[in-house]
# Entry
Amino acid sequence: MNMAVLTRPAVLILLGPPGAGKGTQARMLEEKFGFVQLSTGDLLRQAVAAGTPAGLAAKAVMEAGQLVSDEIVINILRDRLTEADCTKGVILDGFPRTTVQAEALDDLLAETGQKINAAISLEVDDAAMVDRISGRYTCGGCGEGYHDSFKQPAEADRCDKCGGTEMTRRADDNAETVASRLEAYHAQTAPLISYYSGKDVLKTTNAMGEITDIAQDMAAIVTEATS
Ligand code: AMP
# Structure
């Protein structure tokens, strides 16, 4: 048997509309399996904060709840994938979001002889997404996610994970922008469900229940897909 095949870093994709819980689940999988969460949304927000050319181009598009150009996002992801920690395996959270990005990912992985272990679709009701998104906030210190109704820290405004007290809310987590983000998801990203089904790597999970139950389902899928 070819040993190189056995040591290939895992590649997992999380698909789902904004608010489905991709970020929360990616962080849990990161902790459980040691993979690295790659969120193109986080990478873009960092680029915006740093004022890079990509960040400057992306800022207004993100604030409008639309998709940043394939070229910018693919370049950002390509650069990130070359970093050393990605050899632990990656969980792609929010990428790909278009067929062009999915094809670019296939090409990138082909260059390194990697393959997609699973594309996991988090299935949710659109109607619940606005509530989920408008109540969420994040620890500025470690990035742990919280929610006004579904996941509060033990002590108000103090992060359970790192003790940080700087909680931040995303500029695009408001009702109007969420509507555009959901529209972009259905028009441009939902077709990837058939794309990955056609490649025989699609897995689906009901993402409307308790975070810990969903995490258990996801862990079972990941264990099977990476063993
Ligand atoms: P997220 O944090 O994944 O919800 O992404 C926040 C915003 O960043 C999205 O609404 C888009 O404007 C942009 N974005 C993130 N990932 C992508 C992507 N793969 N393609 C295009 N735009 C993206």
Remarks:
- Residues 158 and 165 are 5 Å apart (CA to CA).
- The chain has one domain: 11-124+176-226.
